[in-house]
Amino acid sequence: MKKSLIIFFFLLFSCTAFAGIARKDKDTFKLIGTSFAYNGKFAWIELNGEDYGWTREGENVGKYRIVKVEMGKVKLELFGRIVELKLLPEDAQKCLICKIYFQV
Description:
Elements (H helix, E strand, L loop, with lengths): L1 H16 L11 E9 L2 E8 L2 E7 L3 E2 L2 E7 L2 E6 L2 E6 L2 H15 L1
Antiparallel strand pairs: 1-2, 2-3, 4-5, 5-6, 6-7
Keywords: Signal
């Protein structure tokens, strides 16, 4: 009887201890704006609520690398996987206000 209880509790605790390992964290992106300048192409990206500001093409945003910046689109790479971000129309109005603010 004692042996079966010990085995039962061992199985119960070992199963609950490893239950959280299979959880996958998902990254949330927000493309705030893109810009072209003489010294490079830039993207303003927010990753998991952290604002990275204007980041140049070829640099890292968190663990992702900015591969290509086009007008309103950005391609990011992580371990060979490509993620493409597009600027939403409601965010474009905010970005236009930001560009006017930064050009002054």
